[in-house]
Structure formats: structure tokens, C-alpha cells
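Pilot study result, target chain (222 residues):
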Amino acid sequence: MRTIVILLLSFAAYAQKTTCSYELAMEKQGLLEVTSNAPRVLVELKYATADNFMGRDVYGCLTHAYVQKPVLHMLNKAQASLEKKHPGYHLLIYDAARPLSIQWILWNTLTQYKPAERQKYVANPTQHSIHNYGSALDLTVADANGKPLDMGTKYDFFGDLAYPSKEKAMLAAGKLSEQAYKNRLILREAMQSAGFMRIEFEWWHFNAFSRAEAKRRFPVVQ
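Predicted structure:
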């Protein structure tokens, strides 16, 4: 029941035509809003809240998730794959298309890291993030009540425990629970079945295309 309420509220919120400059710009570029085009997928943009590594809302009026049309197709495919194996489960998006102007805010917040270390967690704005092309997603899996599954760390956790490449070592050391590991596999299997690619440093991040392909196919979201 909670999931149904979340879906209805999300759709009702978007039913009122957006006046957000960021969202209008993305629509003009041909990006599609997720809630109205992938109704089984949940959305909670973390950068539109204070629940992120900066501890503040940097998205302002940007409260809806947008992606490129082929990415939306892949997302619906991933959701269908998830539900087939785990009825009642939903993908829950934490971030989607991200304006380049906000990419700079994220980058400039992590001044405690040198650029080579910093770009493990936030793409260098001079090179652009795949998020800046509407071709990357940060997300998790939520149960039938809309509650996120335990993934071993919060979203935006900077450190080895979030690295997919180090999961087995973390599991063996008792730092990552068996259940959290299995939950990550559920997310990864659904996303990779639809053609998304994982990255080394964040369990929540998936790319629809390489940075080079995204740059070739789409203009950057400003």
C-alpha cells in the first residue's frame, strides 16, 4: 500500500507542469521525466534534500529525475527484470540527469581530497560526468513498502566499503554483511541485464553509455 501511495503522490506532483528552469531545459533537450514514463520506478533525488554528503539541498526546484530516451527504455527493462525475480521490489533513483553547474558545486565541496582522489567520487566538471548527459543513474532497490534494502553503506559513502571491486574482501573481513552483499547483487543483476555498466567505486552508480559515447550522442545538460 505504501508503494502505491508513493507512486500516486509522485505522479500527482509531476502532473502539475514544471516551471523549474533546470527541468524545462532538460525537457527542451529531449530528456524524459522518469515518474510519468516509468511508473514502477521510485524517485527520491538526494541532492534535492539534505541527506547527502554536503548536508544541504543543492538542486532547489529540480525534484524530478530525467534521463535520455534510450536510458529510459533500459531503466524500464531493468525494473521488469527486477520484478520478475523479486515481485514487489522497485528500483529507487537517488540521482539521474545532473546539470553541469551543479557538478561544479559537488566538485568544489570535496576540497579535502586532491583531484586524483576526488574524481573517484565526483567526476571532474572539466571532463563532465556521464550524469551531465542524462546517461547515468544512482539508485538502489526498495521493497514492496518502499523501504530501501540494506546495501552496507549509505548513498554517497566515500570509502572501500562502497567499492564493488572490494566487496568480496569486505565480506571476508566481516565488514560487509552477507545480506547487504546479496542485495547489491540484486541491484547489479537487474541493471546489468538491461545493459547498464557498474563502476569500481560506488555500488549505486550505473552508466548507460561510456563517457565518450554519451558525449557523442547528447549535448551536456547545463
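One observation from the pilot: The domain at 2-217 is CATH 3.30.1380.10 (Muramoyl-pentapeptide Carboxypeptidase; domain 2). A full batch analysis is planned for the follow-on phase.
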